[in-house]
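hey so u asked for the seq, here:
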Amino acid sequence: MSRLITFERLKWASFAHSTAYLCLLVAWLVPGLATAELVFGWAHGVGWIAMCVLSIAAVHLRVIPLWLAVCVSVVGAVGPFVGSYGFVREGRVRAREDAAAPGR
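ran it, structure tokens below
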């Protein structure tokens, strides 16, 4: 299971969820896109549920820290961009730690 849930896969899933949400916002703002609004609304809802389940599993497997799971799960319902930003931030922290680690 830990080989299936990786930091990179979760990061890209978060970006996909943010993209679906952005499309939902555009469809909501532009008149005449009711079908797109429905499709992207479902994509956002199902995507958020999936991200919540995956985030809980990822914290349990120590793939992501708890603060990132909270960003994805709690804030992600109304603003998945926060979770995507959290993945970018955590990726930068990990890159710095890897660069500073002796013997690598």
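The chain has a mean pLDDT of 92. The longest helix spans residues 34-60.
lmk if thats what u needed
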